[in-house]
Amino acid sequence: MSARSIDHKTHEVQVYLDMSGEWVSNDVNQVVEWDVMEVKGKTNLINGNFRLKEQKQFQEDKDLAQWGTIKFFTDSTATYEANGCETLRSKFVKTGRLDNTVDRNYRKVSDNWPGIGFARTLTAGATHTAANTVYYGVAHVRRPAIEYTDSHLNQLWESYFNGD
Question: Transmembrane residues, as ranges (predicted)?
Answer without folding.
Answer: none
